[in-house]
Design a protein that fits this description.
Length: 142
């Protein structure tokens, strides 16, 4: 499905709607340019899961964990990873077994490790500074 967002708040709202469709062990794999809105979308996922914490980019920590909602949220930033092998070194399989939602920014860096049932979210800049084109596959209509 293709959606158009006109603001970071609308991008978050789309993420919150997607969160309602996700179950334990879901993986949401993001692609898109730097600053396209992947973290804003993940803030929406957290809100949709009922997580009260402030969501920030895990650029330097690789993963941020958020609990306190319907499901835990594990927010990964794979920008600095060179391969899927490095993903397994940080305990990827353990996160999958914990029954939360794994939100993966820069998922193209670990594409070999993603399963067929991964929800894919591609976010691209639109015609204006605030506009974003969001393509979601692997889940039924929001």
């Amino acid at each position: 499905m293709e959606l158009l967002s006109h603001s970071p708040e609308e991008t978050e709202d789309i993420g919150a709607r997607l969160a309602q469709r996700l179950g334990p062990g879901a993986v949401v794999a993001f692609t898109g340019d730097l600053g396209a809105g992947k973290t804003a979308f993940t803030r929406g996922l957290a809100r949709g899961l009922g997580i009260p914490d402030r969501v920030t980019s895990p650029t330097f920590t690789i993963v941020n964990e958020y609990e306190g909602g319907r499901l835990p949220l594990f927010h990964f930033d794979m920008y600095r990873l060179g391969s899927a092998d490095e993903l397994f070194d940080i305990g990827w399989e353990d996160y999958l077994r914990r029954g939360g939602v794994c939100a993966v920014e820069w998922s193209e860096n670990i594409a070999d490790a993603l399963e067929e049932d991964t929800v894919r979210v591609d976010i691209r800049r639109g015609g204006s500074d605030q506009e974003r084109s969001i393509t979601i596959t692997g889940v039924s209509a929001l």
